[in-house]
User: Fold these one by one.
Assistant:
Number 1:
Amino acid sequence: MLPLDNKRWGELSHCYGPAADTPALLRALDLPAGPDLSPDAEPWFSLWSSLCHQGDVYTASYAAVPHIVRIGLATTAPIDFSFYQLPASIEIARMTGRGPEIPADLEEAYHHAITSMTDCVSLHRHETWSRSTLLSAGAAQAVAKGHIDIAEALLNLDDDIIARITNFDFD
């Protein structure tokens, strides 16, 4: 895992250019904030905006995922759905050609973090989950097991689609 104080962050990129600001955003995740914050709450807003911008990912995205998963695993308090959804979305984007190749020095930690998302879901399974958390945790599990299409489907479910499925309305 790329240490947060490593100068390599400045060589990695995110949507807005060099990712030297990403370690500070990741450090802010270590502060307990609780689950299901507003969509524009920091640091999640800036992490989403820079690391998975309109479905595209960047080299800094791959370096950030191990830290996000590590923090989710280390946190005993309930966590925000973005701990599941952002890593899952980054992997979906990577696997569907919406980002660069993973740099070789980040590859092992990245893949380990992706598979460790099942442990994160398991650790937090007894918490009360919102619909967003449930769908994101399911997507994280699907991504960790290599089911990218199912993960993407879970993240695209909304009240309308769920109602149509439960009512067998497929027209």
Number 2:
Amino acid sequence: MPSIVKINALTVPAEQREALERRFASRAGAVESSDGFEWFELLRPVEGTDQYLVYTRWRSEEDFQAWMEGPMKAAHQGGGGEGGAAGAERPKPAASASTVWSFEVVQQAAPKKA
């Protein structure tokens, strides 16, 4: 069964780039221990676009969905109730738009060892 890749294309205004990168840096293992997780990369645009790419690879669609419904949802909701508590306001999102692309891995290669 092939791995699946999820790429989240985040549109990030120039003034929010540092905030986005800080937030990802502080996520400290948020996905790495999830069942079926295989790889993560945050890709910074170099030229011609304001979109960051968040690349994750998973053993299966089911593993990705389990992470989305569990740890990822909890992390993005911040754990408070509907009413929220004083001072519990979440920071403004760094991205102004987000699109998720899904792929199956059909071929892959690694460097040859000498």
Number 3:
Amino acid sequence: MPEVADELSHILGHSVTYQHRTPDEQRAVLTEAGISELVADVLLGIDRLFGDSVLAETTATFEDLTGKAPRSVGAWLSENIAAFRRA
């Protein structure tokens, strides 16, 4: 995520920072936003899955499923930057 923030900073022309949260900090943010404990547990589990395994390997799954080569994060952000601009 720090690399995504760096790429956004470059594309947007202003600083974007990523602040990592511990699982306990993230749980507090989620539950304070009104998310149930169950859903918070699921989201924290997904975060752990991504951190521990899914992002640790490169696969051909995207290309196998779509028939298209995957794009870099930077390319995707450039194509979808409007979603990140302030209104």
Number 4:
Amino acid sequence: MLLSVLGAALLCPVAACSADPSDGKQPVRAGRPTPSRSATAAPAHGARPPEQKPPELDAGETPAGRQKATTGNAEIGFARGRKGDALVVAVRCQGTGTMKVAVLPVHVSFPLKCLAGKVSTVYHQIDVTGADRDGTVSVEAPSAVRWSLTVGRGAPAGEEPPTG
């Protein structure tokens, strides 16, 4: 299984990511973690509900891969980026269960807890050596979870100030 191969991979909490300094890798920053958003508003007539649309990227970020609403496990390929660009992985889900998201070749992974009746969206910006390469995002999700994903490229966010 892909995630077992990533045994040495970084497991990041949803709120922020950081690499273990003892492994010699550069830090991974969750540049813009976004709190879960509620899906209580009804979509406009003919519009798709939010959980069925992949997350949008911020201005200045370019798409590199996308997965429309799906259930279960999937692998999504993404295109090579420009040297110096960070990788952005945005995931949206709804339903009861925890997704496991793994990003190769940068060996970053994170869980995302999904809730019934609530749309959750997170953004992770990955700024490590190799983030400009093409790769895949592997998702393991329970069948009760409906999810979508967008991979993008953009300028790395500045250093986050230490919390004190």
